[in-house]
């Protein structure tokens, strides 16, 4: 009996420990704050006109009109960065760890739509009205979803909402698009003057395959395979994973976490599966 009590205690201790091989826990200190500082410096380069993602194709303004970059003001006075997707004139969805990563608390989001730069241009709205999923757990990255309520944003060719996927398909083998305002490599310190906004197509893999890297993957997660030359990177958290083209695109994932080794080692990237949170998100779009 004593050994069972000890074992139960050890299991409880392990289950309460943060998952150290993901980028979500303590995201702001480890990734967001350094990337915000770096992005601000990068965007000040002459003729800079792009957002960043590893590999992919050059985009024109409006290629991902639902993408909203987020400049995050933290309670400690620092700035961090994330991404989001516009769902309606007054709602955007992002990752819960962009608001609270288990260590750092956000105070305000500045969400930027219709721009290839994060720190200038586009339609910019401030909000402190962010609703985190009630089951969000930074320790095991469960329910990494949040909804930001914003001032009314008008739609145009460069700012459009995206539909939520609500079906049962797992999308295994499907090629999906992602985009963001993160860096293009783990060691990036500068960019060329020809760098432009990029999006990348990545293949959805089964959760069983994803568990070979992240053993704790739940059914509420959807993963994509990556390569050293094509992936999401630091700062892309909260951004979209979508399928389809043009106005027929549908959001199937919300960028949740990568491996702590970085974005150029071929590890899968995990997104919150939108269909698993559809009811919760959709019920709050009209509030």
From TrEMBL:
Residues 53-286 form the Peptidase S1 domain. One of its GO terms (biological process) is proteolysis. Residues 1-16 form the signal peptide. InterPro entries: Peptidase_S1_PA, Peptidase_S1_PA_chymotrypsin, Peptidase_S1A, Trypsin_dom. The keyword Nucleotide-binding does not apply. Gene3D superfamilies: Trypsin-like serine proteases. Keywords: Disulfide bond, Signal. GO terms for molecular function: serine-type endopeptidase activity. This is Peptidase S1 domain-containing protein. It comes from Pieris brassicae.
């Amino acid at each position: 009996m004593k050994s069972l009590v000890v074992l139960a205690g050890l299991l409880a201790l392990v289950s309460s420990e943060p998952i150290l091989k993901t980028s979500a826990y303590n995201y702001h200190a480890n990734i967001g704050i350094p990337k915000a500082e770096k992005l601000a410096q990068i965007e000040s380069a002459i003729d800079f006109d792009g957002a960043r993602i590893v590999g992919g194709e050059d985009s024109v303004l409006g290629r991902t009109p639902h993408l909203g970059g987020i400049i995050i003001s933290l309670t400690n006075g620092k700035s961090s960065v994330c991404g989001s997707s516009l769902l309606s004139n007054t709602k955007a969805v992002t990752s819960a760890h962009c608001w609270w990563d288990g260590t750092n608390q956000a105070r305000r989001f500045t969400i930027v739509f219709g721009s290839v730069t994060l720190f200038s241009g586009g339609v910019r709205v401030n909000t402190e009205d962010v609703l985190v999923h009630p089951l969000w757990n930074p320790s095991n990255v469960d329910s990494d979803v949040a909804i930001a309520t914003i001032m009314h944003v008008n739609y145009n060719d460069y700012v459009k909402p995206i539909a939520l996927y609500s079906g049962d398909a797992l999308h295994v083998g499907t090629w999906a698009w992602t985009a963001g305002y993160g860096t293009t490599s783990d060691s990036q310190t500068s960019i060329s003057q020809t760098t432009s906004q990029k999006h990348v197509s990545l293949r959805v893999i089964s959760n069983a395959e994803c568990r070979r890297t992240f053993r704790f993957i739940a059914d509420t997660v959807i993963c994509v395979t990556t390569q050293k030359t094509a992936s999401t990177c630091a700062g892309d958290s909260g951004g979209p994973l979508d399928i389809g083209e043009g106005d027929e695109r549908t959001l199937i994932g919300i960028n949740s976490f990568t491996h702590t080794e970085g974005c150029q080692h071929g590890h899968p990237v995990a997104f919150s599966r939108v269909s698993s949170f559809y009811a919760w998100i959709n019920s709050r779009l009209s509030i």
